[in-house]
Amino acid sequence: MSAREKAKAREPFPGRSKENDRQKEIERLEKDVEELRHLAGDADADAELGRIREQVAELRREFYTHLGPWQRAQIARHQQRPYTLDFIGLLFTEFMELHGDRGYADDKAIITGLGKFHGRPVAIIGHQKGRDMKQRLVRNFGQPKPEGYRKALRVMQLAAKFGRPILTFIDTPGAYPGIDAEERGQGEAIARNLREMARLPVPVIATVTGEGGSGGALAIAVGDRVNILENSFYSVISPEGCASIIWRDSTKAETAAAAMKITAKDLKELGIVDEIVAEPEGGAHTDHEAAARFLDEALDRQLVSLAHESVRELLDARYEKFRKMGQFFDLGN
């Protein structure tokens, strides 16, 4: 990341005043560190610099360890968080992007293509947002239309034909809800993806890298393994949307986030995701390379494991995995 991007990555995010005050304190100390660097070579300055660095590290560690669901949701939405194209550049080689659904258009909110992961040919599919307004408009704020899901399915079927594992990266507030998307069959496109992904005869690994919103996320997330980055979230609706429906007040999003159990830890306990991938201290937006290294290890390990399973074993396990979600039994009586 450039110096400018790293500076933006340290910007405070919305949340309760206590969290904002702590973040401001960390930023103040970081400025002190920068000022003391100009005095390097002076023994007293070096000692003071070391002390402040330790203090900053401890504050940051404590701050990010005790974040609530709403604060983690804000980190998941951070505009400097790594997106699909960032992970493609850091994890894959010989990537070739494939465009269009062969029916209507090329949806730029979804990236699809073929590449190599540790020398193994794979297919890559993921949502793509933008970091400035121009990019966001081009990528439709990471909200795919039907042609985006049909493009994704076309590439998944191509991967299945040639026996390539499929890696997907989820980061979307949800499928685009516009009237044009509905006219072209948004619901049908998502439903078809769910059905077809359930029976793809190749390993499928899905990773929630930011926000995983509703069917727009699930449409490329039916996998043999579902990962989630530490500060990401995955839910049937956004906290703001939930608050608007339940309390008729979107400002109660923080309360909704806590009630919805959307964090990586909650999802792991509920059996919705299989593995939580660690992020660098301060969040993935502070260090894309470190975030990619953590994810690289998990993906490589899972691909090796799935490669030893037969097609029948893959399909049976995938079916059972999603069928048992949401099943709870009261053993108290």
Question: Would you kindly provide a brief summary of this structure?
Answer:
The protein is α/β, with parallel strands linked by helices and 333 residues long. Helices cover 50% and strands 15% of the residues.
Give a written overview of the molecule.
It is a single chain. The chain is built from 15 helices and eight strands. It is of the alpha/beta class and 333 residues long. It folds into two domains: 64 residues, no CATH class; 249 residues, 2-enoyl-CoA Hydratase, Chain A, domain 1, CATH 3.90.226. Strands 1, 2, 3, 4, 5, 6, 7 and 8 form an eight-stranded mixed sheet that branches. The N and C termini lie far apart (56 Å).
Labels describing this entry:
333 residues, alpha/beta, 2-enoyl-CoA Hydratase, Chain A, domain 1, 2 domains, eight-stranded mixed β-sheet
**Gap from first CA to last CA:** 56 Å
Structural class: alpha/beta
Give the helix level as a range of percent. 40-55%
Please state roughly what percent of the residues sit in beta strands, choosing from under 5%, 5-15%, 15-25%, 25-35%, 35-45% or over 45%.
5-15%
Low-confidence stretches: 6-16
String of helices and strands: HHHHHEEEHHEHHEHEEHHHEHH
Computed CA radius of gyration, to the nearest angstrom: 21 Å
Query: DSSP helix count?
Result: 15
Mean pLDDT: 87
Beta strands, count: 8
What's the shape? globular
The CATH first-level class of the largest domain comes to Alpha Beta
Largest sheet: 8 strands, mixed
| CATH homologous group name of the largest domain | 2-enoyl-CoA Hydratase, Chain A, domain 1
- The fold-level CATH name of the largest domain is 2-enoyl-CoA Hydratase, Chain A, domain 1
Q: What is the number of domains?
A: 2
